[in-house]
Amino acid sequence: MDRAALLISFSSLVIISMDLSLSILLAKRKDIGWAKWNIVLCSTLLGMAVFFNYKLLSGFLFTGFPKEVLDFIFEVVFIADTSFVIVFVCRFVNWLIARPMSKAEIVLTFANGVVYLLVSVASALSDFVILNQIQAILPALNISYCLVVAVKSYGTIENKLVRNVAMVFCIISLSIVPLLVLCAIWTPLRSLTFALVELAYFIMYLTFMFISLDKTEKNVERRNEEPTLEDYGKYHITEREFDVIKLIRKGMTNKEIGYELGISVNTVNNHIANIFQKTGVRSRIDLLNVLNEALW
Questions:
Q1: Amino acid 53: pLDDT
Q2: How far, in Å, CA of 272 to CA of 224, rounded?
């Protein structure tokens, strides 16, 4: 079983390395906040994958004192990384879908990471089976929380790409949670389960990063092109409102827009008011930001 876990984990190591590379490239191509935090997440996951492979390899290549040293290093780094990921992923998922966390959620998710850290240390220093079982269940609670948040917020996620990723995340998580519960009962299954879990999520992340980078490239190519009415289809902008938007993008005042289109200033004001209502903004700056996001 460890051999199968090792093979799967090596594949995951390659994939998460690609995830990290694409995250760095995306952060350089487009100034978006989550891309930088994504580098932090991918770096941590890469560290977990590296030391998990070391753990599996140590059983085949090392014996005696070298194996004990490697096992100790694995336990320290892996426990620290996992505790961080348990807390960070909850914050990252909520931030990505633009959902503010309540104070209670922040405290509980942080407490979950701390409890995992303490239980993992106690498990490493003792032979109590119950501690191993709790150690396996805590990440399942973390995934379950993110799953519930993704399901409840799915309908309010505006970014189509993030919404699709949330759907895939839900499907993968629903398949994985039973495995995590099973490995809590039968500990020999833990290595294989962890390898399968990391492979599934890393593949999902790789797909997400490829699509994000592709959209960024297309956005760069279109930077100097004029947007079309179809680009703003979800806001149900009319042709006349689109004419107003084009002139707003050029920095014209309401009076200048009226003169350009041959309409009164009051009519321009009405069009802009309708545009603000449809896009949910209150100023021209917010409008331009929303419209640029629509192109993304």
A1: 75
A2: 24
